[in-house]
Amino acid sequence: MSKTAESVWNNCLAFIEDNITSQAYKTWFEPIKAAKLTDNALSIQVPSKFFYEWLEEHYVKILKVALTKELGTNAKLVYIIRMENTYGNKQPFTEKIPSANRSNLQSQDVDVPLKNKSPELKNPFVIPGIRNVKIESQLNPNYNFESFLEGESNRLARSAGLAVANKPGGTSFNPLLIFGGVGLGKTHLGHAIGVDIKDKYPEKTVLYISAEKFTQQYIESVKKNNRNDFIHFYQIIDVLIVDDIQLLSGKAGTQDVFFHIFNHLHQNGKQVILTSDKAPVDMIDIEQRLLSRFKWGLSAELNHPDYDTRVAIIKNKLYRDGVEMPDDIVEFLANNIKTNIRELEGAIISLIAHSSFNKKEITIELARKIVDNYVKHTKREVSIDYIQKVVSDYFQMDVDTLQSKTRKRHIVQARQLAMFFAKKFTKASLASIGSQIGQRDHATVLHACKTVDNLSSTDKQFRKYVEDLSKKLTL
Ligand code: ADP
Ligand code: MG
């Protein structure tokens, strides 16, 4: 009985199906069609270049084993990448097969011969007619550069943002990672870059998305079995702005798919802009390969605004709202709300609201009352010293013992718990936590956090420690 492409491929599929999860099989193997069999080379047709890259990275070994079983040690695998006319259009393939592509893993025995390199394939994602597909950029036009006031605290990030907006994908700031604490303007600056690019290059496809929404979309696509559409969608974007990427931490599947989308965009000269509330070195549970990508471009920090910048931001807001406020009140606000621009704006808004509802003048007394409310309502951050004290008390040791260099198990555990809670309940960086808990380095703290995570899921007694301490610390 002579072999056909179908029979060979079906045997391979049977073998692969037994060896991977059914979800993976459905996603990555069911859409493949056997195309051609010549001598010892099997050609398979895959839906996109991305698909091919994914197979090469994740499944090349199993493909090799399966194919070798069928065709012997000289087996070769040829990918044929199907071209699509329009994004998301599931029309059956009707065009000529544009080309096969050479595996980028030439050292592998599954050798993929190089056939023609049609110009189309160089960038299979510039799909004819794609210009008709409108992608809503999700940008907020009010978050622009004009309303983003410059100060010492944001100069680097702001000018890097402007440089990126002038030449998206054409600077070494790719990705541009903007990081900084809550309410310091990360989201605003991310939008501003997008808005400016849309202004200068209306034909570019710009997309702003929060990492949270990205994650939801991805999960949804896995459920609905249209993950390919999800991926294709992200691959046709020229400028991708992902907000709060620290939210990807611990989400391996989402990180994996983002890694591939990122690589694709980057390789094709597309611009990626990311924001995070932590510096890359302080991100926990983000895969190393993704972290290293984040560091390829520029990481620019947004710091707490200095006094002059705070005054400028308040005045600008008042001006835009058409409200007048005496200088001493502006100064009072700038002096009392220092670390969060969102809170500063919130205080101004309640001040204006109070005075207009109650038909009162804006006075310093009113300002004081509102600021008091604001500052009281904002949660007080527990200090690292306090955490060390609570943990030491709980294990009936003193803080010096907790910080000591001993390797005694219960002391090591107490120290690791203190580090874990310091990471959880304060905004301090890993390095700063380490230096305050017995002069350790950031890697030790990171290790401690992971150990506590692991132990609390495997060790019942340990989990109780974590729960008890959590309660004590959040009282
Ligand atoms: P983050 O994303 O870092 O938490 P946002 O971008 O949401 O912070 O900023 C919080 C608020 O502060 C927004 O209303 C934003 O417009 C304002 N803001 C932040 N930085 C500036 C700035 N440099 N100039 C003017 N407004 C700012
Ligand atoms: Mg934000």
From TrEMBL:
It is found in: Cytoplasm. Residues 356-475 are annotated as: Domain IV, binds dsDNA. One of its GO terms (cellular component) is cytoplasm. Residues 1-86 are annotated as: Domain I, interacts with DnaA modulators. Residues 383-452 form the Chromosomal replication initiator DnaA C-terminal domain. Residues 172-300 form the AAA+ ATPase domain. PROSITE patterns: DNAA. Belongs to the DnaA family. Oligomerizes as a right-handed, spiral filament on DNA at oriC. Plays an essential role in the initiation and regulation of chromosomal replication. ATP-DnaA binds to the origin of replication (oriC) to initiate formation of the DNA replication initiation complex once per cell cycle. Binds the DnaA box (a 9 base pair repeat at the origin) and separates the double-stranded (ds)DNA. Forms a right-handed helical filament on oriC DNA; dsDNA binds to the exterior of the filament while single-stranded (ss)DNA is stabiized in the filament's interior. This is Chromosomal replication initiator protein DnaA. The gene is dnaA.
